[in-house]
Specification:
globular, Rossmann fold, D-amino Acid Aminotransferase, Chain A, domain 1, 444 residues, 4-stranded parallel β-sheet, 3 domains, 30% helix, single chain
Length: 444
């Protein structure tokens, strides 16, 4: 099987590595890729959000499967063009990708499917935003309704900051979704779908804030780990039964079947699990940690999803080891990241047993690797437990040198110290989206 991976980031580097490990995949290409990807597979300088260009490349390569990594090509309809050309593609259509492209749309789907989520209101003016903030109270949660590369969310106790973020979205021509704050630890679960059937991967936890102790602004993600030893028994089964399958069923019922990976972002609140958000693709940096543990060949599973044959796939097999990924970001990230700085020590880091270096925002300049984005790379450590995996990841990161580079030193630290406790949920109604006045319970 020949596979084409679309995208330039760390998630795509992880996908390429996993596909190369599949004995049934004989050739992998990427477009546009990055410095790390280009070192292991052929890359092509194609605009990833141009449906015609991606389709032409896939046809010229004779691709048996196209895997779309980022959200922008999905929102641009790249998957639609590939399907119209008869090319199997792992990634939802433009309409189905609205589950990520519009948070308001996602809330509507959750309400229709009776999926447990937080109360929310859509606002398009400062007055509406102020009213919603007063209804829900602090901490305030304000989300840009559209795509924002994981950085369009502000969670703050400062009402003025919340209003300022809403106004910035309005000034850019957008709307916002304002939600109640959800307490409890967060969990990310990737669920593969062929439009009807679903298959979960292993859950992970990521870290959005730029600084230790969950301080500073939100980012696209500064690290992650998997599995979650502290997660309640039966969590994955509950998410499938109450969230993923009802959502996929609702999308199919509407005539917009979702084929690809549904990223379910969850909060394990004192009232039970609640969906924070949906994404329509693999998350970054969770993918780096999750795929590092996957033993089942990935290519065949993704092809089965693309062809509507996921029900034929047996359960997935996982390494008993734990994986921790830590992101190295460039200077000034997430505001105005500096690029063009030399990245050194990559070979030393990769030479450490149990360490992977997955490139994200990198490029080659005069034969050298330089930074080319906000999140430059992730170092993944594999170990027999969380402490060992953390030690591996940080030992690899210590070898990598980037002027002005920044990373968190506490990825997975609280979990490694046994500090995450999930409270037994108290019975409560499921809350759902309302586009009108105050949000109302949807019932159990």
């Amino acid at each position: 099987m020949k596979v084409l991976v679309i995208g330039p980031g760390g998630r795509e580097h992880a996908l390429v590595r996993a596909l190369l490990a599949d004995p049934f995949v004989h050739e992998v290409h990427a477009a546009p890729g990055n410095a790390g990807i280009s070192a292991i597979v052929p890359t092509h300088p194609v605009d990833a959000v141009d449906p015609a260009a991606v389709t032409a490349l896939a046809e010229s390569l004779g691709s048996d499967l196209v895997v779309i990594g980022p959200e922008a090509p999905l929102a641009a309809g790249v998957a639609d063009a590939l399907r119209a050309a008869g090319i199997p593609v792992f990634g939802p259509s433009r309409e189905a990708a609205q589950l990520e492209a519009s948070k308001a749309f996602a809330k509507q789907i959750m309400a229709a499917a009776n999926v447990p989520t937080g109360m929310a209101r859509v606002a398009s003016t400062a007055e509406q935003a102020a009213d919603a903030l007063d209804i829900f109270g602090a901490p305030y949660v304000v989300k840009d309704d559209g795509l924002a590369a994981g950085k369009g969310v502000v969670v703050t106790a400062d009402r003025a900051e919340a209003l300022a973020h809403a106004q910035a979205c309005f000034d850019a021509g957008g709307t916002v979704v304002i939600e109640e704050f959800l307490d409890g630890p967060e969990v990310s679960l990737f669920v593969l779908s062929d439009g009807l059937n679903v298959l979960p991967l292993a859950p992970a936890q990521d870290f959005k804030r730029i600084h230790d102790g969950d301080q500073g602004p939100n980012t696209g993600g500064m690290g992650a780990y998997s599995p979650l030893e502290w997660a309640p028994p039966g969590l994955v089964d509950e998410v499938i039964a109450r969230v993923a399958q009802p959502t996929i069923d609702e999308m199919a019922h509407r005539g917009t079947p979702f084929v690809g990976v549904l990223y379910v972002g969850l909060a394990l609140t004192t009232r039970g699990l609640r969906v924070i958000e949906f994404n329509a693709r693999f998350g970054d940096p969770e993918t780096q940690a999750v795929l590092a543990r996957l033993k089942t060949p990935l290519g065949g599973v993704l092809l089965a999803a693309a062809k509507g044959e996921l029900d034929r796939v047996e359960r997935l097999h996982w390494s008993p080891q734990t994986a921790v990924s830590v992101v190295l970001a460039s200077a000034n990230y997430p505001d105005a990241p500096r690029t063009g700085d030399r990245v050194r020590g990559l070979k030393k880091a990769e030479a450490i047993d149990g360490v992977q270096v997955l490139h994200a925002g990198t490029a080659r300049k005069l034969g050298k690797v330089v930074s080319a984005g906000g999140r430059v790379l992730a170092v993944v450590g594999l170990g027999d437990d969380l402490a060992a995996a953390r030690a591996k990841a940080y030992s690899g990161l210590a070898e990598v040198k980037l002027k002005g580079g920044q990373y968190r030193s506490d990825i997975a630290l609280v979990a490694a110290q046994g500090g995450i406790v999930v409270a037994s949920p108290a019975p409560s109604p499921v809350t759902a989206f309302s586009a009108g006045s105050a949000s109302t319970p949807a019932g159990e």
